[in-house]
Amino acid sequence: QKGTWSIIGTMVSFLMLVIACGAVILSAGGVKSLSWYIDLPSIVIPLGITFFVLMASNSLWDFFQSFFIVYGKKDYSEEQMLQAWLAMKTVLFVIPIAGVFSFMVSIVAIIGFMSDLSLLGPHLAVAVLSVFYCSIIEILLIPTAVRLRKITKSF
Predict the structure, then answer these.
(1) What is the pLDDT of residue 7?
(2) For a Cys-Cys bond, which of 35, 84, 122, 137 suits 66, CB 3.0-4.6 Å?
(3) Burial of 107 (0-12, 13-18, 19+ CB in 10 A)
(4) From CA 31, how far away is CA 35, in angstroms rounded?
(5) In whole angstroms, what is the distance from residue 89 CA to residue 79 CA?
(6) pTM check: above 0.85
(7) 106: exposed, middle or buried (Cβ count in 10 Å: 0-12, 13-18, 19+)
């Protein structure tokens, strides 16, 4: 029962987030503006940094396991739950830093290679996307982290 309601709640929350973001994006510039929010390097760099931090701390599997603990039906040991909580905390700590790092690298590149000032606006918009993506990832992970924390505090 617990797992089913958690999944339904997460799906409804995710759907509401998508609808809210879509409404804001569409109100800002219509359907044409959707392409402004898509930039692969802006998401790959922060995710890559987070991946390498999890690998370096030997916590990648623990991070993925946190989703199974919260939304699954299998029982886990206290040690597994604490390790999953630590991995989730690590991601919640690293992902904003990775977004700001990616933003700063983009700003340095823009300043270093900027010869045409008319391109400054579009390049700055792309630089900000990494922080935007990391904010969305953080928002999506917080409900799972809160549920995981409640589970780990219960013992």
Answers:
(1) 72
(2) 84
(3) middle
(4) 8
(5) 15
(6) no
(7) buried
> 19-42: buried (b, 16+ CB within 10 Å) or exposed (e) per residue?
eeeeeeeeeeeeeeeeeeeebeeb
- Give the pLDDT means over successive 10-residue stretches in the chain (155 positions): 66 84 79 79 93 96 93 86 96 96 91 80 87 91 90 80
Structure tokens at 109: 């590149």
Question: Per the structure block, which two tokens stand in for 50?
Answer: 């987070």
How many helices and strands, by DSSP H and E, does the chain display?
Answer: 5, 0
CB-CB neighbours of 147 under 10 Å: 19
Q: How far is CA 80 from the centre of its chain?
A: 23
Question: In the numeric block, which tokens belong to residue 139?
Answer: 């928002």
Q: What are 20's two structure tokens?
A: 């809210």
Three-class SS state of 24: helix
Closest to 94 measured CA to CA, from 60, 46, 143: 46
> What's the DSSP call for residue 57?
T
